Amino acid sequence: xxxxxxxxxxxxxxxxxxxxxxxxxxxxxxxxxxxxxxxxxxxxxxxxxxxxxxxxxxxxxxxxxxxxxxxxxxxxxxxxxxxxxxxxxxxxxxxxxxxxxxxxxxxxxxxxxxxxxxxxxxxxxxxxxxxxxxxxxxxxxxxxxxxxxxxxxxxxxxxxxxxxxxxxxxxxxxxxxxxxx
Length: 181
What we know:
Elements: E1 27-31, H1 45-64, H2 68-75, E2 77-88, E3 97-108, E4 111-120, E5 126-138, E6 143-144, H3 149-156, H4 169-178
Antiparallel strand pairs: 1-3, 2-5, 3-4, 4-5, 5-6
């Protein structure tokens, strides 16, 4: 399915659009760096979120041409992390390549829930899962606001589980282990 968002009038450049096929589960390969590891050579727990955030930013830019900095500069709006939950299953190790896959689970008028899964390079091991909730805010006032209608339509087309609630992460983890995408 090829989906695009209407281009703005005149010579403005769209702040977001889907490039090619609609990819609801973008992923990218990342190498675990020495500076991010604990003395045992494992990716430090605090760094998992950093890897996920960097992967998600890359996915937004590469799959939807959404540059978060440019979006903030043009609109005066941006997203802030409101909450996160992480589950560490198997350590990712120094110099290991891992796949990080992200997806929008659910959207609200002023936010979204994003899921990220870190897998081994052969996808046989799930290292970690991270769930984050973001609020859309007016950067000058620091207050939550509603997504613009065209952006809401865009992110709604990407969500994979309307009404998602993370009450039983164990069930969600079982679903990761059973699918090796």
